[in-house]
Amino acid sequence: MERVDIELIKGFEQLIKNSSKSIVLVPHRNPDGDAMGSVFGLWRVLKNAGLKVQIVSPTKYPEFYHWMDGHEEVINFSHHPKQSARALDESDLLICMDFNQLSRLGDMQPLVESYTGKKVLIDHHPYPGNFTDLVISDITYSSTAELIFSVLQSTEFASYIDRNAATSFFTGIMTDTGSFDFNVSNPNTFEVVAQLTRMGIDQPDIHSRVYDNYSVDRMRLMGFCLSNRMTVYPEYHAACMYITLEDQKAFNFKTGDNEGFVNMPLSIKGIVFSVLFTEKEKYIKASFRSKGEFAVNEVSEKYFNGGGHRNAAGGELYASLAETLAQFEKLLPEFEDRIKQSVNKKQRRK
């Protein structure tokens, strides 16, 4: 595993070996498939190695990830802050996974910020923050799940990767690439998937558990959004969808019910830039996707206090939904040339 510095890997391995109490694994708030797949996979590996390890999630996560090995062990900080604090107090190593800014922890940020034990960051997003003792960060990986699997393969803990851990790592890779639709330009992704397959994972079953496990309300919300909450801007090769708080109430919205919605407009001929705005109580959550070379992380960083990858990014804006939609329409002309360049390059390759 050449891409991550071997000294960083050795340092990570040594920190685990030096742990005499317990190890706590933490994903970002509202964790997605990559965050939970990475956490559950590493949790199983460390458990197999005979180590004491706990998972503390800042918030709940979608029900269609509850089937993964380790779900019953998760402590939800938003529901159990005292138990979460006790878990950190009783540990001496904290591993932050799939995020690289403390703000991604939400209300749990002060707890991690004040942690006195050793801290490690494992992530694949650009511009990592400086809040841990050791940083393993590489944007050339499709997902944090691919990264941590590759790191483990270069340590003595590789022998503890069993089928359950492999299943979790595959889930992380699958979901963070949109079922291998983006972030898969590096052959290493498929080499890792080949290794996971040899470990006995059931790919069709994993895909079904994640993508064929939605509620009737979620399906109806999707249809409603496509019919009533989507605006297409053909002159900019862009589309925008949004979900109001009222919509969420009407369709019994649960965490994760809007997952994948942002990708749908990209199926429209000529659309290469898509955004989904989801209204929260105090802010608007923004999700961005693109095709080709148009970098949506630039849009997210400049206007929505976020970041991410070239073709998949996210952010948030402390404004009303109406103000957010107006800002989105206002910024489109600024990126028009770059969007069209991406479209033209794509057409020339055909």
Average of pLDDT: 95
Uncertain regions: pLDDT < 50 for 5+ in a row? Answer: none
What kind of sheet is the major sheet?
6 strands, parallel
Would you report the number of β strands? Answer: 12
What overall geometry do the principal axes of the alpha carbons give?
A: globular
Q: Compute the CA-based radius of gyration.
A: 20 Å
Named at the architecture level, the CATH assignment of the largest domain is Alpha-Beta Complex
- Structural class, by secondary structure, is alpha/beta
Calculate the terminal CA-CA distance, rounded to whole Å.
Answer: 34 Å
* CATH hierarchy, class of the largest domain: Alpha Beta
Q: State the fourth-level CATH superfamily of the largest domain.
A: inorganic pyrophosphatase (n-terminal core)
Care to describe what's here?
The protein has twelve helices and twelve strands. The model has no long low-confidence stretch (mean pLDDT 95). The protein has a six-stranded parallel beta sheet, with helices on both faces. A six-stranded mixed beta sheet has the order 7-8-9-10-12-11. It has 350 residues and is of the alpha/beta class. It folds into two domains: 206 residues, inorganic pyrophosphatase (n-terminal core); 134 residues, Diaminopimelate Epimerase, Chain A, domain 1 (Roll).
